[in-house]
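Dear colleagues,

As part of the handover before I leave the project, I'm documenting each prediction I ran so the next person doesn't have to rerun anything. This entry is a single chain, and its sequence is reproduced below.
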Amino acid sequence: MGILRKQLKESWNILKSFKGNARGCLIVEPLWGIPYNLFIPYVSVYMLELGCTDRQIGIIASVSLFFQVLFSFIGGYITDRLGRKRTSLIFDLIGWSAAVLIWAVAKNFYYFLVAAIINSSFRVVHTSWTCLLVEDTEPDERVHVYTWLQIAGLLAGFFAPAAGLFVKNFGVVPAMRGLYLFAFVSMTGMFFIRNQITHETRIGILKMQSAGKFSFVAIFGEYKEICIQLIKNSQALIAFALMVLNNIQITLRSSFQAILLTKGLELPESTIGIFPAVTSAVMLFIYLFVMPALGRLKVTHPLCWGFILSIISNGILVLSPQGKFYIVVISTFIGAVGGAMIYPFIESLVANSIDNENRAKTMAILYVVVLGISAPFGYIGGVLSSISARLPFVLVIMTFGISLILLRYVDGVQKRKRSDIVADL
């Protein structure tokens, strides 16, 4: 108990040390995370109830990713012109507030398609909000910022079982409509509060002041120059590749996990909300009591274990017999431990591979690449799911396997970097 108390105190001291935008963004995150965690486990089931097929769900996922590519491409340019803070407010209101209202009144495939396209604009915020969060934060603090961001999301995840109660008492469609309306109120409030308690970053102010007239030629010229720099940055390329693979597995799991649990493994719909709560509890324990120690390790070590555990977790899910609730709980537990070791380290690896000066446009390029490659996998997952609900998760296992192979090259790149620095001295 003494060790756990010491680790908890260290985690708490890390949280108290955050200042400025990092603190402001973290404080309000539950107002977005709670409603999101309430509706997200039942999205695909809600779509099925309103007449969508597995393939149509896959089409919606792929169309969404296609538009996310477009919004990601212009995200860096918009962020530099409008500023990190203002861009985050405008496009959160469009991408989330407007989208959840459409989902709340959805009647068929076309409603979901339109809402997915509008929701895709959140990718602009992904760039602006990331810059707002980390640009005034020291590089060695970023893994802890992302860890506490995850903790905020996990605490919100404990509300997920409440959605199961609503579904059980009112049915999938009425419950989801109510949850989406609650999401509109909570998320919209969060966007305005965050806008009040954060400030524009130093780099953001400089970028707004230096922004010239709108020119596609200028945009492509800047992006081309940054791409040339990135190609020469081996660590950034590997970090980007890991993010691509991570985004593919997230797309597949978020789109088809509920379908696997209900159609493939024949679990009751009301139990779906339990698994996010299990995930939240396990990951919260890891982040509070284990992450302070993990944060002192080389980034490749926790990532390696994270990928291995994720392979085991999804392998159990694929091989699980129907109706075995306890087996899915075991899979969820192992996957939560693995997931806790993946997200903050991939995000910090990417963040530390990018210089602040070109962060917005570099992140925009990254998201274009990530989403461009990921886009077909929504449809591919839909085709696989129509054959067997288990097949998308075979593909998930493959993404973690490739990630494990790529991880071998990170240490080599970092050693060469250190050697070059010593040689220069």
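Confidence is low (pLDDT under 50) at residues 420-425. The two ends are 47 Å apart (CA to CA).

All the best with the project,
I.
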